[in-house]
UniProtKB/TrEMBL annotation, chain A:
Gene3D superfamilies: Aminomethyltransferase beta-barrel domains, Aminomethyltransferase fragment, Probable tRNA modification gtpase trme, domain 1. This is Aminomethyltransferase. It comes from Zoogloea dura. The glycine cleavage system catalyzes the degradation of glycine. HAMAP family: GcvT (MF_00259). Belongs to the GcvT family. The keyword Glycosyltransferase does not apply. The keyword Methyltransferase applies. It catalyses: N(6)-[(R)-S(8)-aminomethyldihydrolipoyl]-L-lysyl-[protein] + (6S)-5,6,7,8-tetrahydrofolate = N(6)-[(R)-dihydrolipoyl]-L-lysyl-[protein] + (6R)-5,10-methylene-5,6,7,8-tetrahydrofolate + NH4(+).
TrEMBL record, chain B:
Its cofactor is (R)-lipoate. The keyword Disulfide bond does not apply. PROSITE patterns: BIOTINYL_LIPOYL, LIPOYL. The lineage of its organism: Bacteria, Pseudomonadati, Pseudomonadota, Betaproteobacteria, Rhodocyclales. Keywords: Lipoyl. The glycine cleavage system is composed of four proteins: P, T, L and H. This is Glycine cleavage system H protein. The glycine cleavage system catalyzes the degradation of glycine. The H protein shuttles the methylamine group of glycine from the P protein to the T protein. It holds the Pfam family GCV_H. The modification N6-lipoyllysine is found at K64. Belongs to the GcvH family. Gene3D superfamilies: 2.40.50.100. The gene is gcvH.
Length: 360, 125
């Protein structure tokens, strides 16, 4: 039996097409997925992301614990509400999950993890915490819903929908959050557009969604969320990386912080020993067809694999993220095996589109 | 949208119109386009190709996924709809107007094995 978010009835009443996603019954689209995609690039759209899990880590040992838990370094966070994107690795250097950590103070952090990995994440964190002997408690916040409001007009429409929220959130920089009453407003997202991710009490989810809709924010499904994040060149856990892939091979080296040589973190030894053996670049299909995940890529310096692929509504072409040999360069011509035929593609540097505009 | 009663259907969501000359015109059902979402690519069989019943002979890709389209009966491909290839979204706009290919059946009686509208709707549960 799939789990339901607090907005399940709202989606069904709106005629959404519901699908199973990571054990959750989620809207994949309400009508045209392409129109939902364009609404976010051009105006404002919203996504129910309540299937993702918020965790609160609190205690004197919280900072030291996170410095050892994840590959990015929370020590660089000093401004209240500042967010950090990081991978949490296993001892082999594989990615257990990618997550966002919000700094509230040296003894208080909010962590948001993926839905499909939430149970294993919590078990892993709790076991590491117990083993560390550090003083901190990890609280699971299933009492909170999450709504992502994204697009060039997302912030102004949020302020119109939620009177009083502007004072609390107008000064936020990108990747920064602030509390507003029971709400937590973060200027973050997964679309390549400006906007907010709102974390709020479950009981206020439906009324908040309705207020945003009344302010002209278009309900969007996970289908559009996927094409938006792909155009923005953002990795999706389970497609672009997983337990068996190092962040150095997944295009996520920028999230691994080796600067403080005295800091050890889970997976560090494996990353140092193995280094990078692949790189992630973008592909644009030049022949007719649609790139999908896990198609074989043939290059002059060896074979690679697409990790995410789809149709790009902004470019009106098919695009993919691909894990390729280190010798491949932007501009190279490659071939992709699509149902037994080798089709031509060009190597590009992601992102494909951001802030309403094509980038390639 | 209800499924036209003058068409025949398959459980794999193709519709079939039997023309006056006994040839068949084939597309996908409204239920199928709804499930696929925005259609962005079609790969259709070439005229002259001889196909077997239930052979995967065309591919329809939406933003979300790729799906095969099957030959409802054995026969020979007479034509493919290039206009649909050039405007894949026409399948979403009207699945019963956007035909995909035409088949000359090897055996005219095979058409009798296809579902009628009520039979197709029963397969949708």
């Amino acid at each position: 039996m799939a789990q339901q978010t607090p907005l399940y009835a709202t989606h069904v009443a709106a005629g959404a097409r519901m699908v199973d996603f990571a054990g959750w019954d989620m809207p994949v689209n309400y009508g045209s997925q392409i129109e939902e995609h364009h609404a976010v690039r051009r105006d404002a759209g919203m996504f129910d992301v309540s299937h993702m899990l918020a965790l609160d880590l609190e205690g004197a040992g919280a900072k030291a614990f996170l410095r050892g838990l994840v590959a990015n370094d929370v020590a660089k966070l000093g401004e209240p509400g500042k967010a950090l994107y990081s991978c949490m690795l296993n001892e082999q250097g594989g990615v257990i999950d990618d997550l966002i950590i919000y700094y509230l103070s040296d003894t208080s952090y909010r962590i948001v993890v993926n839905a499909g990995t939430a149970d294993k994440d919590v078990a892993w964190m709790q076991a590491r915490l117990t083993a560390s002997g550090l003083v901190a408690t990890l609280a699971v916040r299933r009492d909170l819903a999450m709504i992502a409001v994204q697009g060039p007009n997302a912030r102004s429409k949020t302020w119109a929908a939620l009177p009083g929220s502007e004072a609390a959130s107008a000064g936020l920089k990108v990747f920064q959050a602030a509390a507003w009453g029971d709400f937590f407003i973060a200027r973050t997202g997964y679309t390549g557009e400006d906007g907010f991710e709102l974390t709020l009490p479950v009981g206020q989810a439906a009324s908040t969604w309705a207020a945003l809709a009344a302010a002209g924010v278009k309900p969007c499904g996970l289908g559009a969320r996927d094409t938006l994040r792909l155009e923005a060149g953002m990795a999706l856990y389970g497609n672009d990386m997983d337990d068996g892939v190092s962040p150095l091979d997944a295009g996520l080296a920028w999230t691994v912080d080796f600067k403080d040589e005295s800091r050890d973190f889970v997976g560090k030894a494996a990353l140092v020993a193995n280094g990078a053996s692949k790189q992630v670049l973008g592909l644009v299909l030049e022949d007719k067809g649609i790139l999908r995940s896990h198609q074989q890529v043939f290059t002059a310096t060896g074979e690679g694999e697409t990790t995410s692929g789809s149709f790009s509504p902004t470019l009106e072409k098919s695009i993919a993220l691909a894990r390729l040999p280190l010798g491949v360069a932007v501009g190279d011509a490659v071939e992709v095996d699509i149902r037994g035929r080798r089709l031509k593609a060009r190597v590009v540097k992601p992102p494909f589109a951001r802030n309403g505009k094509a980038m390639i | 949208m209800s499924n036209p009663t003058d068409l025949r259907y398959t459980a794999s969501h193709e519709w079939i119109r039997v023309e006056a000359d006994g040839t068949l015109t084939i597309g996908i059902t409204d239920h199928a386009q709804e499930a696929l979402g925005d259609v962005v690519f079609l790969e259709l069989p070439e005229a002259g190709r001889v196909v077997a019943k239930e052979e995967a002979i065309a591919v329809i890709e939406s933003v979300k996924a790729a799906s095969d389209i099957y030959a409802p009966v054995a026969g020979e491909i007479l034509a493919a709809n290039d206009a649909a290839v050039d405007a894949p979204e026409s399948v979403n706009a009207d699945a019963y107007a956007a035909w995909l290919f035409k088949i000359k059946p090897a055996n005219a009686a095979d058409v009798d094995t296809l579902l009628d509208a009520a039979g197709y709707e029963a397969t949708l549960g």
